[in-house]
Write a structure and sequence with these properties.
Length: 86
Amino acid sequence: MATINVRQLDDDVVDRLKRRASSNNRSLEGEVRHVLECAAYDDMAAKRVRFLEASDRLREKTRGCKQTPAEVLIREDRDHGHSDSF
């Protein structure tokens, strides 16, 4: 694997990357690696990676919670007089 050194990076950029890394439960190095990997692929691939990561985090947060099927929620909503049209 290759190593890249980035010099004279603005302190604000580093602070933003640190906050982003923290919110994604990654180290600064891991976050920068992730950003570069996403940038190296096309936009759709990057969006897919972000979506899958977000869905994994959501799945972990809701593990063990009772889930109500969507069709039950839709039926309840319709039974209370709400319609599909917006």
